[in-house]
Amino acid sequence: MKNKNIFLLVIVLSLIAIVLWLTQSNSTFKRELSNFALDDTSNVTMIFLSDKNNNSVKLTKKAPGKWMVNDKYSAQKLSVEGLLKTMMELQVSQPVANAAQDNIIKEMAVNAVKVEIYQWVYRVHLFGIIHWFPHEKLTKVFYVGGATQNNLGSFMLMENSSRAFITFVPGFRGFVSPRFSPIEKYWRDYSVFKKAIPEIARVRVEIPQTPELSYEIRNNGKNVFSFLSLVDNRELPEYDTLKVLNFLSGFRNLSFETLINDMDPVRKDSILASQPFIIITLTDTSGISKTIKTYHKQGPEGQTDPEGHSLPYDLDRLYALVNDGKDFTLIQYFSFDKVLRPKTYFLKEMPGKK
User: Fold this and answer.
1) d(C-alpha 55, C-alpha 66), whole Å
2) Cβ-contact 45, 119 below 8 angstroms
3) pLDDT (tens digit, 9 = 90+) per residue, 8-43?
4) Interatomic CA distance for residues 318 and 315, integer angstroms
5) How far apart are CA 44 and CA 34, in angstroms?
6) The pLDDT value given to residue 29
7) Is this structure's pTM higher than 0.85?
8) Which secondary structure element, helix H or strand E, spans residue 107, and what is its range?
9) What values do phi and psi take at 109, rounded to 5?
10) Which CA distances in Å does 253 have to 167, 191, 305, 328?
11) I need a surface site. Which of 2, 107, 119, 250 has the fewest CB within 10 A?
12) Nearest CA to 80 among 159, 6, 224, 180?
């Protein structure tokens, strides 16, 4: 009898849920003209951002904390987390004044960013206990316009609505529009190398201008390494192990500063046709290799050393070709100097020499 009652209760609840689901209409969505914020961002599966200039970004969640940009690149974790946090904390301060509604909406029709949010939801969700029929669903579509005159709010408009609102994030003094950028490069992870020492099989460093300074370090495990001179493919027994460890630890988190793929093609081709400064190839323990080619960047006019001699190259930055040659970037010596070492840096001094 008890099992029968439970069975009947389940059937009744199921019928109620189905009726509620079937009787839902778009009118509910249309009434929520200012409901831009999300109650829960943990179930967001995809965010699509686009504008009228043919810019678009698709952010897809692949695993907890791991997102992809346009199914091609890893996303910057902090940028995605910032967007999700914004969408959860977003509040409406007031509707746009009636006298300004038409002008704001016309402006947004041209310049706004369209935001589409997909979430993992349940077709039947009752009493916070029953969760049936999970599926991915487009849950919100709205438009993000520019900033208010005082730069403390952003104009937003729900799809199929004729009423725009001014939104803000409590505690943030500014406008949130830039956080919804549809420009791909602003969402990409700028990492070049992100490997701990146990993940590194070998690192090859080539210095084309002085090939006798080129070398390869092989990680044999348990802080045992092989150090090879590339000019004669000879293993060198005497090297500074501590310097090798410091060198390899430098690959734990190296990122480029900015993408410059849109540089003038003639200038870019001229740089890439020049002799590379240093070429680094890291192969991890799974056999995957990554190569970065660096090139000198012309220094500012009048740059000199302490003795007053003219210095032709930038002392702060280098050009770098990364991601299998697909991306042209700027990198900082401050970040990369620890892995831009010549062979002589690692060699122990011979007895009697200083």
Assistant:
1) 23
2) yes
3) 555 655 555 554 444 443 333 344 577 899 999 999
4) 8
5) 20
6) 33
7) no
8) helix 98-111
9) -60, -25
10) 36, 7, 30, 19
11) 2
12) 180
